[in-house]
Design a protein that fits this description.
With 372 residues, the protein is an alpha+beta fold. It has 7 helices and 18 strands. The chain has 2 domains: 136 residues, no CATH class; 164 residues, no CATH class.
């Protein structure tokens, strides 16, 4: 289920038109991503590239969805169960639907107005007339842009754990298992400092010399100026603010995260204060993060790509996946429990405070469970 890809992101100027291109490499061949491509006049600010292009990172909640979230808060709901409603077992398709769409969608919804999420993942597995339950330890998701990659890594490790366990203990392959139910325990956390996405936090963890910027920046003026400027094609940004600004974009097709220029006042990156515009899952402004080493922040260098886990010897193609792998402790934090089954071969759980999430918001079958 890995989403890792190699791409290049370039600006080209020709005949007074500046074009932004995202070119993913597929089977070592470069292709054009039409979803990310953007053209503006060469003299326009970089922010104009992102005004009308498709946004693959933020969500928009209707009033009804916000009221649903308020109900979840009011009733102290923290447990969510996803069920496969099909008549026959379709474990592979169910896990793909859950990992690629259903679980990330629910977590983005729950991330609205929260600063981070603490999530425990659980899988119900039927195999050889037994009912097993696999559960991770609580995992902190510190940025909404980490949701897809975290879910992907957890699902990958969970499937590996299930496959290894049933093969060694029950002598059957993974194909003998049926999975029709998942559980998430989600605690929404507030008031913590907004972090960078993990893909960029791991860059900050590498010891590189930070660029010393001598010029002080009036942060309140910078914040106010950005808020007044953002989204306006003819907005004015004060000349006194000699700064470079960057923002994040997510490709709607490949789900790749990358940083792009928003406002460039100087090409002298060593002497120009540079900031990243921080937003929440709904696209609301949440502050500025100063970038100390611009070249390191923007570069995807070869050292990010040949990494081996000392514990399990697994190989990883990026620091992001390696960091996630270490965070889930190579999958060793997954516990396995055996559940009692009734005479019909089913395991029944009774919840008093339970309601289904509306299908017009969530196309998959989710049930929200509060304390009894």
């Amino acid at each position: 289920m890995s989403r890792h890809r190699q791409s290049r992101f370039i600006f080209e100027t020709s005949e007074n038109v500046r074009t932004f291109r995202h070119q993913p490499f597929i089977s070592e061949l470069s292709v054009e991503c039409q979803s990310c491509q953007s053209r503006v006049r060469a003299n326009e600010p970089y922010s104009h590239h992102w005004m009308s292009s498709e946004d693959g990172q933020h969500i928009k909640l209707s009033l009804e969805e916000k009221l649903l979230l308020k109900r979840i808060e009011r009733e102290r709901v923290d447990t969510f169960i996803m069920c496969d409603e099909s008549a026959v077992g379709r474990t592979r398709d169910f896990l793909l639907d859950a990992g690629m769409e259903a679980v990330p969608q629910l977590l983005r919804f729950l991330n609205y107005e929260a600063s981070q999420l603490e999530v425990t993942f659980g899988f119900y597995v039927n195999v050889t007339k037994k009912r097993l339950y696999y559960e991770t330890f609580p995992i902190i998701i510190k940025h909404f842009l980490d949701i897809d990659e975290t879910v992907d890594m957890v699902f990958t490790r969970m499937v590996e754990k299930i496959s290894s366990y049933v093969l060694s203990t029950l002598r059957v392959p993974m194909e003998a298992c049926t999975i029709k139910r998942l559980k998430l325990i989600v605690h929404r956390q507030f008031n913590s400092h907004l972090q960078l996405p993990l893909q960029y936090r791991v860059k900050s963890d590498v010891r590189v010399k930070a660029t010393k910027i001598a010029k002080p920046v009036d942060l309140p003026l910078l914040t106010e100026s950005y808020i007044n400027y953002h989204g306006k094609r003819f907005g004015h940004f004060p000349d006194s603010l000699q700064v470079n600004l960057y923002c994040f974009r997510v490709c709607p097709r490949t789900k790749e995260l990358y940083a792009v220029p928003y406002l460039i006042r100087s090409e002298d990156v060593n002497n120009t204060p540079t900031f990243l515009i921080q937003t929440d899952v709904a696209g609301e402004f949440r502050g500025m993060h100063e970038i100390r080493n611009v070249r390191r922040f923007l570069r995807s260098d070869p050292n990010d790509r040949v990494l081996v886990c000392r514990q399990c010897k697994a190989h990883f193609s990026s620091r992001l996946h390696f960091a996630l792998h270490k965070y889930v402790d190579c999958g060793r934090g997954i516990v396995v429990m055996s559940l009692d089954m009734d005479t019909d071969g089913e395991s029944t759980e009774v919840y008093e405070n339970c309601f289904s999430l509306p299908k017009q918001f969530f196309k998959f079958a989710w049930f929200a469970i509060g304390p009894n």
